[in-house]
Amino acid sequence: GAGVSQSPSNKVTEKGKDVELRCDPISGHTALYWYRQSLGQGLEFLIYFQGNSAPDKSGLPSDRFSAERTGGSVSTLTIQRTQQEDSAVYLCASSSVAFNNGELFFGEGSRLTVL
Amino acid sequence: QQQVKQSPQSLIVQKGGISIINCAYENTAFDYFPWYQQFPGKGPALLIAIRPDVSEKKEGRFTISFNKSAKQFSLHIMDSQPGDSATYFCAASRASKIIFGSGTRLSIRP
Q1: A44 phi and psi, to 5 degrees?
Q2: Per-residue pLDDT for B99 more than 70?
Q3: Residues 6+ apart with CB under 8 A from A65
Q4: Does any CB of chain B come closer than 8 Å to the CB of residue A13?
Q5: For residues A42 and A40, what is the distance between their CA atoms, to the nearest angstrom?
Q6: What is the pLDDT of residue B95?
Q7: Which one of A31, A33, B49, B83 is at 20 to 30 Å from A57 when CA atoms are compared?
């Protein structure tokens, strides 16, 4: 389809393991966001990519979290040495150039469970 | 200054009633105020949005009321239907920065 695609949809891991979450944005969208949604909570901003500009990493909660965006398209969010408090749904969203109307298109998320 | 406060956390409304969700912001630099709707297992999707140069925007049964001086805005859902049961997020944005409220879980009783 033409929407934002995220994988895996569900991931169960053991505490201390590393995980990678993938996001394929809508073709042509230059802006890409990662958000974290904990159970019953709001949307916590993690990181923002816009074209070739330096990413806004101001929302990353610790140095265990990192993200890359290759070729201005696919993005990977990596969580190292996972902790139980990392359990959440990780949402990716993309938007067209210059964020001109504020509309973000979200994927269905990757649900991470850390045991 | 970056917070968007949303209330109530949860809301139950009878079918046919009016659902009202409120939000308040602090940063007057915000210039776009969208509402997103999220169904279980899905990502949020844009529902309706408003800019601060108007006081109200209506799309079908959904209306945003905006009070610039009070730095508050609200979503009204008229003739609420069971299919409206979802989590609603308000947001405030300027350029690439978008801040979401904490969400309201709305349940419409048949």
Answers
A1: -95, 120
A2: yes
A3: A46, A77, A78, A79, A80
A4: no
A5: 7
A6: 80
A7: B49
DSSP secondary structure letters along chain B:
---EEEE-SEEEEETTS-EEEEEEE--TT--BEEEEEE-TTS--EEEEEE-TT-SEEEETTEEEEEETTTTEEEEEESS--GGG-EEEEEEEEETTEEEE---EEEEEE-
Q: What is the mean pLDDT of residues B50-72?
A: 95
* B43·A43 Cβ contact <8 A: no
Report yes or no: B33 and B50 within 8 Å, Cβ to Cβ.
yes
pLDDT of residue A98: 56
**pLDDT at residue A101, rounded to an integer:** 62
Structural tokens at position A62: 């610790």
Find residue A68's DSSP bridge partners. A76
Structure tokens at B68: 């610039």
Q: Do A108 and B42 touch (CB under 8 A)?
A: yes
Residue B2 in this model has a pLDDT that exceeds 90:
no
Band the pLDDT of B94: cuts 50, 70, 90.
confident
> Which of B38, B98, B104 best tests the A interface by mutation, with the highest count of A CBs <10 A?
B98
pLDDT at B96: 79
- Whether the link from the prior residue into B40 is cis, omega within 30° of 0, is no
**Cα B42 to Cα B58: distance, rounded to the nearest angstrom:** 25
For chain A, what percent of residues have pLDDT higher than 90?
75
A–B interface: beta-carbon pairs under 8 A:
54
Q: Do A108 and B93 touch (CB under 8 A)?
A: no
